[in-house]
Amino acid sequence: MTKLLCTICALALLFSVPAYADTGLEWDGVGSTRSMLLWDLGADPVFPMYPATYIFRVLPHAKTGVEFPNGYYTTFFWGNNGTFIWDGGNAGSYYGMHPYPVPAPDGEGEWEISVRSDDFVTGTKVDWDRWHTQAIRVWRDSASITQHEFYYDLPDTSKVITHEVNDAGWAATMPPSPAIVVGQAPDNGSGASWGGYPGWEEFHGVIRGMQFYTTNLSVADILLEIATPMGTTAGANNIWYLNINPTPTDTADDSGQGNDPTWEGAAPALYTDQGTVALTVSGVALSGVN
Questions:
Q1: Does residue 26 or residue 288 have the better pLDDT?
Q2: 3-12, 211-220, 279-288: which range is least confident on average?
Q3: CA-based angle 268:32:67, to the nearest 5?
Q4: Direct distance between the N- and C-terminal alpha carbons of the chain, in angstroms, rounded to an integer
Q5: pLDDT at 41 over 90
């Protein structure tokens, strides 16, 4: 009888567990523990700084209240997994795109391009608590000119920030430890974020839908890749990392390229499109079935 009950419960469980359409990685923004998703790119970066295209789906929440040490965020950075100031006293060879506090360090967030030790913002507050599909394109026009383009609310292509760097010395030298990081900023070597702030400049909200490409995709191809990953010739030929529905225990590369990240510290919480679901059988919690 006990075996039969267990079998019935197991079958019921298979049909009662919801199939989550969307999952993601959810940071609380406080940054009380180390929780950074990391791709160590090696001395000769296997994912080049330029050209590149990144796609993210983000659900940002405002940082308000005393629990937040500051108003900084990290969606992602390409840069040094170590000190920010490594290039002869300068911050060399990095970029990142995410909310930025205006005025720093505790003002309301605006979407920004961070590059060459400067922050270029939209001038308007982030529209918090709703999903944004975002794409970043970066490329070289010449040995001295690099371009940075951040579409922060696709498919509306008018919502874009751009910044050109005209400096032959910019990104001429690779960082000591090139990396892509998501969710938190790198450790500057003293147990604090790149900027020296507590809380690791942690993202507050959910990040999912990650697609990285080793080329400057056209905007038309980006929109098609969002709808169907690897659905364009350029996308299929240059995909480097893909995980639309990451979980804390599964951030593996689904592109077939084998570019799996690791966690520096502990993984954040699991986001699902149905929230936290208690598994039950006929209204009885599984913990009560024996």
A1: 26
A2: 279-288
A3: 110
A4: 11
A5: yes
Q: Vertex 79, ends 139 and 153: CA angle to 5°?
A: 60
Residue 25 has pLDDT above 50, yes or no: yes
103-133 burial string, b = 16+ CB within 10 Å, else e?
Answer: eeeeebbbbbbbbbeeebbbeeebebeebbb
What does the pLDDT read at residue 21? 83
Domains of the chain, each with CATH number or no CATH: 22-288 (2.60.120.200)
- Per the listing, tokens 């567990």 go with 17
> How far, in Å, CA of 148 to CA of 146, rounded?
7
Q: What are phi and psi of 250, to 5 degrees?
A: -145, 90
Cα–Cα dist 129/86, whole Å: 36
Between 75 and 276, name the one with better pLDDT: 75
- Let me know if 1 is exposed, middle or buried by CB neighbors in 10 A (0-12, 13-18, 19+): exposed
Task: Give the integer Cα–Cα distance in Å for 15 and 93.
Answer: 51
